[in-house]
Design brief:
The protein has about 160 residues and is α+β, with helices and mostly antiparallel strands. Helices cover about 30% and strands about 45% of the residues. A hairpin with a 3-residue loop joins strand 4 and strand 5. The longest helix has about 35 residues, at about 120-155.
């Protein structure tokens, strides 16, 4: 991660009324995010990675509730089906993201840790006063993800 930029650390939790495998499949297949996650405008595969999927790199374009767009690539570094999926981001955001899934009695708890720095000059300039707005924006994007996942799987998702 570059030394420049404002650091952010977010933790999101979802409780999904579905078994772990369909939840894993939805999160693992990032190329389908635009079909169910409103904030994801585009996902383009950049690199297939190795036979186990590690190294797969996707280019994302996300739209925040305030209308700005974030573009970054995410390279998968950890694939432990169906419990852990992690990667390294580079671009407008630089850092790491990790999905952790646990299952109990046919439901799935999802935890997402997103530790990034911004590389956009305007975001870094506004960070001292706009940090709460950026956090709120992140939270809204993740709520949209929970809503989209619920719709995709035909289940309830608490967030």
């Amino acid at each position: 991660m570059s030394g420049d930029g404002t650091p952010y650390s977010f933790v999101t939790r979802w409780h999904v009324d579905a078994p772990i495998d369909p939840v894993w499949d939805a999160l693992y297949h990032a190329e389908a995010y635009p079909e169910w996650w409103k904030a994801v405008l585009a996902v383009t595969k950049v690199d297939e990675g190795g036979p186990d999927g590690v190294g797969r790199t996707d280019r994302f374009v996300w739209k925040a509730p305030l209308g700005y767009r974030l573009r970054f690539e995410l390279r998968l570094t950890t694939i432990d089906r169906p419990n852990r999926l992690g990667g390294v981001a580079s671009g407008d955001l630089e850092g790491t993201g990790v999905w952790t899934l646990t299952s109990e009695e046919g439901t799935t708890d999802v935890r997402y840790e997103w530790n990034v720095r911004t590389s956009l000059t305007w975001m870094n300039a506004l960070a001292p006063v706009a940090r709460p707005v950026f956090k709120s924006s992140h939270d809204a994007v993740m709520r949209e993800g929970a809503t989209g996942l619920a719709r995709l799987l035909g289940v309830r998702v608490d967030h």
